[in-house]
Amino acid sequence: MIFFLVNNYYIIVITIKKELFLNRPFISLLVRKSVVNFNNIFVYKKLYNLSSMPPAEIPKYIDNIPASDKIKRFIWQIVSFLLFRPFALPIFHKWRIFLLRCFGAVIGKGCIVHASAYIPAPWNLIIGEKTAIGPEVKLHIGKTILGNKVTISQRSYLCSATHEINSINTPFAAGTIIVKDFAWVAAEAFIMSNITIGEGAIVGARAAVFKNVEPWTVVGGNPAKFIKKREVYDY
User: Fold this and answer.
1) Residues 6+ apart with CB under 8 A from 197
2) N or C: which end of the chain has fewer CB within 10 A?
3) Sign of CA dihedral 165, 154, 131, 139
């Protein structure tokens, strides 16, 4: 019999012969630390003899992200750390836009990108005019396309890349997120890869969007669901 302590529980392992309990040679009993009374012992989990089982075949992960992309992202991370993120004052809006454009971003006039926004691959970013990316917004390395007069509020996550779930190896898969003109993604919302937010649509705060959002609608919740039509009376 062996005693050992894990997370304020006593684990008691009793070894028995393989012939007993249908070839399950170990029984694990869990006892609360505060009560070491064998009358209060209960069976927590039965452990199989793993040594008698064939080893599982675990495929090697295949990294399908090009080395050139990794090098570009590494260089951008250094530039961002030194020249983008420290310049957080509003007077540096144009400077930050200039740096993003230098690394391939297509950005229209009158846009605002906050210094705390996480943009890992500027060359995959396309923005129209008078669009704002708020504080601590996170993008992914897939393509992100934002229309005109779009607002991405603070701490939202536009996850433009994911992993394929139809493979046990879950290979990386870059996608595209499109947010059309006059749309608003509210604070801390999550937008899944390969999603389109329609023109004038509003994604409510902390919503999780896994399906396309129709134009001029308001959605919210997890998963996001239709709440109402958006009616605009003035411009």
Assistant:
1) 177, 178, 179, 180, 183, 185, 191, 203, 209, 212, 213
2) C
3) negative
Closest to 157 measured CA to CA, from 217, 115, 227, 206: 206
Q: How many CA atoms lie within 13 A of 28 on its CB side?
A: 13
At 27, list the tokens: 């029984």
What does 217-232 look like in DSSP terms, one character per residue? EEEETTTTEEEEE---
Q: 83 in the Ramachandran plot: left (φ > 0), alpha (ψ -120 to 50) or beta?
A: alpha
Token pair recorded at residue 110: 């009158």
221 close to 168: Cβ distance less than 8 angstroms: no
At residue 55, the pLDDT reads 60
Please give the model's pTM, rounded to 2 decimal places.
0.74
What integer pLDDT is reported at residue 234 of this predicted model?
A: 77
User: What domains does the chain contain, in order, with CATH numbers?
Assistant: 2-51 (no CATH), 75-229 (2.160.10.10)
Alpha-carbon separation of residue 195 from 11, 61, 207 (angstroms): 48, 27, 14
- Of the pLDDT bands very low, low, confident and very high (cuts 50, 70, 90), residue 71 is very high
